[in-house]
Amino acid sequence: MTAAIILAAGSSSRLGQPKQNLHFQHRTLLQRTIETALISGCEPVVVVVGANSQLVKPFIQDQHIHLVDNPDWEEGMSSSIRIGITALAKFPKVDSSVILLCDQPFISSQLIGDMIRKQKETGKLVVACNYNHTLGVPALFHKSFFNALLSLTGSDGAKKLLKSHPHEIVIVPFDKGSIDIDTPEDYDRLLNSGN
Fold first, then answer.
1. What is the pTM of this model?
2. Would you identify the CATH topology of the domain 2-191?
3. Helices 29-39, 109-122: crossing angle, 10 deg rounding
4. How many angstroms separate the CA atoms of 94 and 110, rounded?
5. Nearest-CA neighbor of 73 among 5, 148, 154?
6. CA–CA distances in Å: residue 122 to residues 84, 114, 162, 169
């Protein structure tokens, strides 16, 4: 069983408002990511909130998710990954997890499905997406990597493990993975992109 961990705890400091609640194609970015994970068959879908949790939660309360608060969100992305992985302990059937960001608007259920299939076909322990000449999230990790994910600290994200375990990785192309929303200009570009 493949879980999904959606990282949505950041403060969106460069944006000036919670990016989780930005609207794109009639839903918030976080709603879109949750729905995509659910449609892809991930179970459970763990959503880690933090900095703006009181503003974010009302938009996602009715969805079939496991919501966890990250009180240490200021430490950086590693703290949300650790909380998400820890939450999976309640689900003994989980043998892998996809780590997703809420601000990549073009993540699709097909992409997540392709990642799950690639892992099964190849037996590799990690499936990472390729965009902008780099590897990044979404990334799928076999449970044998969960302890390594729990050992991340500070601003380290999953990319640190991708760099240190190149032989364990199979790659899935995701050209639009480079589109993420960090600034008002990024959001304007998204809204004006015609997608």
1. 0.95
2. Spore Coat Polysaccharide Biosynthesis Protein SpsA; Chain A (3.90.550)
3. 40
4. 20
5. 154
6. 26, 12, 17, 10
Q: Which residue has tokens 């390729």?
A: 130
Find how far residue 51's CA is from the centre of its chain: 16
For residues 70 and 10, is the Cβ–Cβ distance under 8 A? Answer: no
Mark residue 162 as left, alpha or beta (left: phi above 0; alpha: psi -120 to 50; beta: remaining): alpha
pLDDT in tens, 82-110: 999 999 999 999 999 999 999 999 999 99
At residue 162, φ and ψ (nearest 5 deg) are: -65, -40
Length of the chain equals 195
pLDDT at 159: 86
Query: What residue ranges do the domains of the chain occupy?
Result: 2-191
Q: What's the gap between Cα 153 and its chain centre?
A: 17
